[in-house]
Amino acid sequence: MSELNASILSYPHRGHWGDNTYRGNCSGHVIKDLLDTYHPDNFIEVFSGGGTGEDVAAEYGYKDSIHLDLNNGWDALKDDLPRSSDFIFSHPPYWSIIDYNKVRGEYTDTDLSCNSSYEEFIFKLDQVNEKIYNALTVGGRHAILIGDVRKKGHYYSIVKDMTWIGVLESHLIKQQFNTESSKYQYNGKFIPITHEHLLVFKKIGVWQVDVKWTRDVHYNLLEMNRVTWRALVQSAIQELGGQATLAQLYDILKGCKRAESVSDWKAKIRQTLRASGFKRVKKGTYTLDIS
Ligand SMILES: C[S@@+](CC[C@H](N)C(=O)[O-])C[C@H]1O[C@@H](n2cnc3c(N)ncnc32)[C@H](O)[C@@H]1O
């Protein structure tokens, strides 16, 4: 028995459950510890892959657990869950990092690991998570194991970008071992991703669905009310390559939103330049003071 009693998980050995050669397989300890913690009456696994969850469930005496994956004919985007459950574990693909069409040797366009855009992947993942949530009985839990990814130098935080459905009960960090990216030596400042996220969502009501999502917004500081003069002056100096005259600063900041709310915005700029963080290099010319 190993109930989860800390929010950091580390399993250097994945255990004997499932096919350890199945690409992207997870440690059976995760599933075992979740079952030890929640003692669900029944258990469904979505994205069961190489059979890790099935082996754990069998060992724990779950006679009617269900393990669903494209490789046993169940399509998360097309098919519904066959019944309700008080505990569902899912371990979706991490976008297209591993192409499961190649693993299966058969192309299915609804495979979440298809080389689709990131937005499309998140959209599909949300659809599946919604389906899983709806199959939970009240009081039931969905535990999802998911990792962030890096592609062409860009960091994609799947855990942040996917919609959270249900009430978040726990957010655990699981250490990853033997990841592809940690095997290489990189030049420059590169921090390999060596963790995954295990989120546990609870269904607390029959009709109520608790949803949380993030959005990408690009603001322009010049159009914002809630910005300090320091930030505005710093940005203007940076736009000018690191050095600016008072006249140039006036010119850049003259129409900014913040200036509308003060009677003498030029005086505000001069006052800001006298504060720490800026350096007068010659009469009427300033740089950032980052020494
Ligand atoms: C990260 S793997 C799961 C690995 C598993 N936990 C294990 O230990 O072996 C993700 C799985 O999602 C499956 N998958 C991808 N798209 C799917 C879909 N639309 N419906 C069902 N399964 C899908 C893949 O076949 C793959 O087995």
Précis, in short:
With 291 residues, the chain is an alpha/beta fold.
Can you describe this structure?
By secondary structure, this protein is an alpha/beta fold. It folds into two domains: 8-212, Vaccinia Virus protein VP39 (Rossmann fold, 3-Layer(aba) Sandwich), CATH 3.40.50.150; 221-288, Winged helix-like DNA-binding domain superfamily/Winged helix DNA-binding domain (Arc Repressor Mutant, subunit A). Helices cover 26% and strands 22% of the residues. The chain contains eight helices and 14 strands. Strands 1-9-10-5-4-2-3 form a seven-stranded mixed sheet. It has a three-stranded antiparallel sheet with strand order 12-14-13. Helix 1 packs across helix 2 (52-59). The longest helix has 18 residues, at 118-135. The radius of gyration is 26 Å and the shape is elongated. The termini are far apart. The structure holds S-adenosylmethionine. S-adenosylmethionine binds at residues 18, 22, 24-26, 47, 49-50, 52, 69-71, 74-77, 91-93, 100, 110-113. This is DNA methylase.
CATH topology of the largest domain: Rossmann fold
Element-level helix/strand string: EHEHEEHHEEEHEEEEHEHHEE
What is the averaged pLDDT score? 95
**Which CATH architecture of the largest domain would you pick?**
3-Layer(aba) Sandwich
CATH superfamily of the largest domain: Vaccinia Virus protein VP39
Figure out the total of helices: 8
Protein name: DNA methylase
InterPro entries: SAM-dependent_MTases_sf
Organism: Lentilactobacillus parabuchneri
